[in-house]
Amino acid sequence: MRRNDTFVFLLMLLCAPLATINLADAASPRIIRNKGSDTMLEVASMWSSAYQAMVPESRTAVIEASGGGSGNGIAALINGHIQIANSSRAMKAREIKLANSRLRSQPVGFVVGWDALTTIVHPDNPIKALTGDALNRIYGKKGDIERWSDLGVTVPGCKDQRMTITSHRLNSGSYAYFRHAVLGSKALMRRDIHFQRNHAEMVDTVANDPCALGYISIAHLSDRIKPLCLTRLNKGQPPRSYCIDQQADQRVSVNYPLLHPLYMYTMGEPDPQIRAYLDWVRGADGQRMLKSHGFIPIGYGGSGQTF
């Protein structure tokens, strides 16, 4: 073999492993990271698995769903760590401004369904409904309702009738939406609130404490706790209560006070792979799975009203 031929042959041998690695990398599926709302985590995990099983062309990408809270998901999106943020609240103006300044890009939100928050108590609690004003006076920083007796009821097994007031964590979309809807955008919650890590923990707390009051997504209702009706007071009109009907096909009215959208956010317009996934989530199969988890499909809509 001539010297030049030998050199070329050796060069080919040296490059062969690199070529193999590059081909392997090219064949590896793309990872699309989807993080955020704990409220949405179960359905988001089902969406990611079902999409890859049901849609053949999706196998060039792997959707990885994780929780951590709406605020953490949005922060991860702004920092460029993920491609899709799940959120049970709309992005705040300061978050959008931060995304614009940091990534020179505009977040795009896609409504993927609807949820409703419901206040919950122990099944032995005789109370049936709460008004927006009562919730404000219970949860607000300057609230003056601390005992169930302040609302005219006596709760069996609740010592001194003092409420155990529970809430979701500060980085939770449920916390942010509830605070805004009940207290107003700039108001603060009282300091003696018992914060819960997720909906399941809140259900456990309320189910085991006759004194407790909390709020959860309707997707997490169970027979271990009792949902309360919400009463809206309008000037010149009789009070109107809105209740959760767990037996009905649509469990809440479009005018229910704490009905709100669920979002998936991308940074800028999504690329074709991510767009295909979002379209599937918002389509018939994705919405059927959303409904099976207790949420409300896109087509049902809602007024997004508060108290």
UniProtKB/TrEMBL annotation:
Residues spanning the membrane: none
Top-rank lineage group of the source organism: Bacteria
N-terminal signal peptide: 1-26
InterPro entries the record matches: PBP_domain, Phosphate_ABC_transporter
Record key words, sorted: Signal
SUPFAM superfamilies: Periplasmic binding protein-like II
Domain PBP residue range list: 26-281
Pfam families per UniProt: PBP_like_2 (PF12849)
Record-linked PANTHER family: PERIPLASMIC PHOSPHATE BINDING COMPONENT OF PHOSPHATE ABC TRANSPORTER, PHOSPHATE-BINDING PROTEIN PSTS
Record's protein name: Phosphate ABC transporter substrate-binding protein, PhoT family
Source organism: Magnetococcus marinus (strain ATCC BAA-1437 / JCM 17883 / MC-1)
Species classification: Bacteria, Pseudomonadati, Pseudomonadota, Magnetococcia, Magnetococcales
